[in-house]
Fold this protein.
Amino acid sequence: MIHFAILLVLSTTAAAPAPQEPLDPIEIPSALIKPIEQVDVPAREAGVLATVNVEEGQMVEEGELLAQIVDTEARIARDRVKGELEIARRNAENDVNTRFAKKSVEVAKAELKRSMESIETYAKSISDSEMDRLRLVVERAVLEVEQAEREFEIAGFTREIKESDHQAAEEKVERCRIAAPLGGVVVQVNRRRGEWVEPGEKVVRILRLDRLRAEGFLKAQHLSHDLKNRPVKLTVDLPGDPGAEFPGRVVFLSPEIDPVNSQVDIWVEINNEDLRLRPGMRAKLTIR
């Protein structure tokens, strides 16, 4: 029994997995900090700039109004289409003509029926021409129902067209607004109030600073399949705070090795919510 217990303990010990050893840190002595996102915000409509609401160095939020093109004509056109849309909606909901036409059919058929019953009782009490006229009245009333239904259907299509026109008019007004597509700092204002701009012309340049990228070179001997998404410590000397540290992670490893120096490009994304880092700085990377 004792021998069995000893064997069981030894077996359990042998089966237990060995603890995983921590990965050795990899140091990259010099990496250049660059912006991840920067955008030249263009005008989307031609016109005169009524206002430019930002200046260089100003922080802006995503969606914030940067500049406004004069949109007087666009607003007038939008309001006109809005009125036309309201008329089209009311026409599309108005089925009075259809209901009246159907009622007219009922009355015409009833009158024709009474005339036919009268002839059955009193022959020649109603002339053939009068009977023809009554039949024509019924047929006309039936056709008027079809016409009213067709007009009601067309009114529905007209409403849909006017809704599209209204959407386009709203979009025209919106396109006169030049808004920030991302949050960041304004680094360049290319046009001023009162100047004419064309679609696609650059008005403001914005640089995103809350997320930055450090680009460096990694020796090929350190390459491994698990490097991507590994945590990284970025160390940089800031004014009044030498050796400041920032967290990040590996987001890209180039698939190509430089044949001259046996290095690969590596990108590390850095969180910079306090905006202490600036593009152009040099830093040391430690991959953990």
Observations:
- Residues 71 and 176 are 6 Å apart (CA to CA).
- The helical segments are 2-15, 72-93, 96-121, 128-175.
